[in-house]
Amino acid sequence: MSTSPHSAENSGGRAPRASHPVAVTALAAGLLAGTIAPGVAAADSRVAVSKDAAGQDRPELQKAVQAIVDAGFLGVQARVNDERGEWAGSAGRRRLGANAKPPADGRFRIGSSTKPFIATLVLQLVADGEIGLDAPVADHLPEFKLDRRITVRMLLQNTSGLYNYTGEFRPDGSIESLIPSTGKEWADARFKTYRPEELVRAALSKPARFEPGTNWSYSNTNYTLALLLIEKVTGNPIAEEMKRRILGPLKLRGTVVPGTSPELPRPHLRGYFRYQDATDRWKVIDVTRQNPSMTAGAGDMISTTRDLHTFFSALNGGRLLSAKLLAEMRKPHPKSVGPFGGYGLGTYVQDLGPNCGTVLHHNGSTAGGYVSVMYGTPDGKKTLTASITYGDAAPDVAQAFPKARDNLLKAVFCGERAGAADEAKPAQ
After folding, report:
1. Which DSSP string corresponds to 320-370?
2. Which of 61, 180, 229, 299 has the highest CB neighbour count under 10 A?
3. Is 3 a member of any domain?
4. 108-142 as b/e, with b when 16 or more CB fall inside 10 Å?
5. How many CB atoms lie within 10 A of CB 329?
6. Domain range holding 384?
7. Any idea what the CATH number is for the domain that residue 342 is in?
């Protein structure tokens, strides 16, 4: 998740509520709906299979992808890389009012799947001796007068205690957000530009959630600070440093750090947002264009299923970080452990159970329009990456997603092909 505290993945297992922004983030956390929601007509039942997956008969994957659309979502594109090769498919529609299928490798907003990219950059700077993982962040960013107990590790692990500027739960269960992040407020402000420093200072105006290092709480503030840390240490804008260290070497030509630009490069799926207006009537608007600066470093990047696969496979396969730093990345804080595993440094670590093994993941969503999915095995040899878009329906994700999440994850990571290979150590 990148824009609110509603996600089940990011709120310690709280049940998601039944409003549309909540459904988006719950979906990112729980991964997909598996049944037709009441009153929602199923879309075209055919699943488009990419040419690069020709010859692969993967009915279990086709069925799982189509189930998402049958539940009321507009479009899905998914990619699986495993011992059988690569499968890529899509289902549903590219946009409202048209029947064109989603592109097999269209661009989309990846939300909090941005966080592993940022964490990797920080850890590369640790490897270079430019940053100490357990050194105070204040040494590099003195202008914010941060508590000197807050370390670089705490930013990446969400244990700093810093208030989340996109929203925190009040004692009564309502949400306090320091910027517009849900409903009509977000729709009206979706082209507003925010400076990273502005977001951090807004968060610092609120009391800390807890003493640094004593607890865990998902906070986008940590990753916006991590962006500023990267820029301060390297002297380069984040987009330039990302290209130099990750996007360029891995040839991720479909991945963008957009800054304040509202544009989404083609080809892409259209994203939509459903909310209640001042008269309590439901409205659906196209939010494909939106200014992503409200989650700078925490949820602003654009990518493709192919590029997410390449990145996550390279990361977990040891091509971007040393085995020692990968081990640090995969060491969950005890207070973070919940139904979706535990949170390490920019990644979740989850045991899927017998015959399935361990997976690493970080899904994401934007306040409007887009959900991203990114799972992989510790050896980097098996990945599941996907994007999902909302249309004009409002599926009941809270009830539907657990079954379909399990079905898709089992189809990819479990069975006789899973097991020992998935537990292999990353390449040295």
Report:
1. SS-HHHHHHHT---GGG-BTTBEE-SSSEEEE--TTT-EEEE--EE-SSSE
2. 299
3. no
4. bbbbbbbbbbbbbbbbbbbeeeebebeebbbebbe
5. 23
6. 20-423
7. 3.40.710.10
